[in-house]
Design a protein that fits this description.
Length: 308
């Protein structure tokens, strides 16, 4: 097993090669279900403290049965699988470039929710063309004790999001605790009201928006991820959900670049085309850098070898 760490606009990815896990036969979507069910201890040992933390996303690289794909990948965090992961795909691309497994140019990866296309523009600069994204519901009301009634949209960008256009808390790092608490309150209210994504899916990401701080940016965002941590990057699947909402409202034109700024000030460049089933195909561009080669040690005497 070989493990390489990277960060994409500040958000860490831990890419795992040659894990030799028995995921059984069938399509990647079925293998991902097996992985989530049988290998939670593996996920914890790789991502959780003391070796990692709740911000990490894992990228398990597997062989793809699709002839046009450079690899298959299952993204996961400390509590569950992810359908797609934008920052993880950018990080995976930069990592495979570092290992000289891919060259600059266009490639595809197979994910459990479909194929995504990437363009490796430099060893560190990558654009990702995501699976089709769409808005499921608009103007959904939630109630939070601290701020009263808030309105948001439910959208799919490879994961499920609840997006609040105007955050009552400033999108600044010094308000990180308040942003996190507000987002957790929103998610809890959605759960208590039984508000879900398609087919009863858990809306596990909460995205809050506010005005940008950089002159070139269109918006600034805070994203709560399923573990309760926050995304240091602008969140690729969240950006895709955001563009789906903008397109549905006819508030942003096709192919025009939108600059999304994260809570730490890093940015993605976004644009979209119309999809085949009424949604949008979003392209997300950002930068990733390899930060470490990791050699985990699993001591049988260690009570926390599978994570805390």
């Amino acid at each position: 097993m070989r493990i390489i760490d990277s960060h994409t606009e500040g958000e860490p990815t831990r890419t795992i090669f040659n894990a030799a896990l028995d995921l059984g036969p069938g399509p990647l979507s079925e293998k991902a279900k097996v992985f989530e069910k049988k290998y939670r201890d593996f996920c914890g040992s790789i991502l959780k403290e003391p070796r990692g933390n709740d911000a990490y996303v894992g990228a398990l690289v597997v062989e793809s049965e699709e002839s046009d794909c450079a690899a298959g990948v299952i993204f996961f965090n400390t509590i569950q699988n992810l359908g797609m992961c934008g920052h993880g795909t950018i990080g995976l691309s930069a990592t495979m470039a570092y290992l000289r497994q891919i060259e600059p140019g266009r490639h595809k990866f197979e994910t459990p929710v479909g194929k995504v296309a990437i363009e490796l523009k430099t060893p560190n600069r990558v654009s990702v063309t995501n699976v089709e994204s769409y808005r499921l519901e608009s103007n959904v009301l939630v109630n939070v004790e601290s701020y009263g009634e808030l309105t948001g949209d439910i959208a799919w960008g490879g994961n499920w999001f609840f997006l609040v256009q105007e955050s009552p808390v400033p999108i600044k790092l010094e308000y990180l605790r308040q942003l996190t608490d507000l987002s957790l309150e929103i998610r809890n209210d959605l759960e208590n009201k039984g508000i879900k994504g398609s087919q009863g899916a858990w809306i596990d990401h909460i995205e809050l928006y506010g005005p940008p701080e950089l002159d070139e940016s269109n918006s600034r965002s805070f994203v709560l991820v399923p573990s309760g941590s926050y995304d240091r990057s602008p969140c690729g699947t969240g950006c895709s959900a955001k563009m789906a909402c903008l397109a549905a409202d006819k508030a942003w034109p096709v192919r025009k670049t939108w600059i999304q700024e994260s809570v730490i000030g890093s940015t993605y460049s976004l644009s979209y085309e119309h999809g085949e089933t009424g949604g949008v195909i979003v392209t997300v561009e950002g930068s990733a850098y390899v930060t470490a080669e990791v050699t985990p040690i699993f001591d049988s005497r260690d009570p926390y070898r599978t994570g805390i």
